[in-house]
Amino acid sequence: MVLARGNGVQDTTFAVIKRTKLFAKQVETLRFSCDCHIYNPLDYAWPMHEAYLSAYASKPVRTLLVGMNPGPFGMAQTGVPFGEIGAVKTFLKLSQPIGKPPTEHPARPILGLETKRSEVSGKRLWGLMEEHYETAEAFSQEMAIYNYCPLVFMQRTKTAKNLTPDKLAKGERLALQTICDAYLGDIITLLDPAFLIGVGVYAHQMLEKVNRGDERRIVSSILHPSPGNPQANKGWDEKAAAVFRDLGIW
Predict the structure, then answer these.
(1) What is the mean pLDDT of the chain?
(2) In a domain, 3, yes or no
(3) Cys bridge to 123: 18, 19, 53, 84, which one at CB 3.0-4.6 A?
């Protein structure tokens, strides 16, 4: 389903929220064979995600950043992409209630805004945005941040290892990607960015696929800020900023 862009920011916001509600329902219809607890923050954290979309991610922008899927201590807790708790509270200034998924892994309860653990990836990414733009309002005039897949897959092991979408069984992965591709394509249509930036390799690949060689947009990537990525643990912010400067975004 491709949506025509609305006339004006309010129409675009309405269309983005409506499309995201549909996206949330569509992924709920999928079934997965992995031995996992599956969290959908577009469901139990919808008030927060809607507030994020309304305030910061539903107007035409020059640059769209896209991550892979929610982190267990980021969007899974807050409903905000790369939603590190400090950034959500102090930079984005969001405070909507967070519910609970139908089942939780004992090692990964959803604590919402009471969570005490900081997500490193989100702290790095939103910290860079705050350093450059100073305010979330200024950021939202030029950039928006989304995730490709809204689901979190927590393996039923003691450590609750995060199973990333690319590791799902092939048929299940393709069914999920079909829904995620359609949503991402509609968001690109609505926000009409000139630059599509994948946060990490997987997101970059998905953007390349969805963009289908459309030369009106430049597709590139930055290093994923996860501490599990050795290249990100020294000077990640400068490496990411250098990409934005080289592309002419900053």
Answers:
(1) 95
(2) no
(3) 84
Number of domains the chain is built from: 1
What 3-state DSSP class applies to 221?
A: strand
**Assigned domain for 2 exists:** no
Record the tokens describing residue 131, joined without a space: 């350093």
Alpha helix (H) residue ranges in the chain: 9-28, 41-44, 46-56, 75-78, 85-86, 120-133, 136-140, 170-191, 201-211, 236-247
Q: Are 75 and 41 in contact (CB under 8 A)?
A: yes
2 pLDDT exceeds 50? Answer: no
User: Which pLDDT score is estimated for 4?
Assistant: 45
Number of Cβ within a 10 Å radius of residue 196: 24
**Residue 1 belongs to a domain:** no
Cα(68)–Cα(203) distance, integer angstroms: 5
Strand partners, 195: 63, 218
Quick one: tokens of 134? 């100073």
Give per-residue pLDDT as tens, 143-163: 999 999 999 999 999 989 999
Over the stretch 164-191, which tens digit does the pLDDT of each residue have?
A: 999 999 999 999 999 999 999 999 999 9
Between the alpha carbon of residue 111 and those of residues 91, 108, 193, the distances in Å are 20, 9, 34
- Which residues lie closer than 8 Å to 31 by C-beta, 6 or more apart? 172
244: its two tokens: 């934005």
- Write down the pTM of the prediction: 0.94
Q: Is residue 139 part of a domain?
A: yes
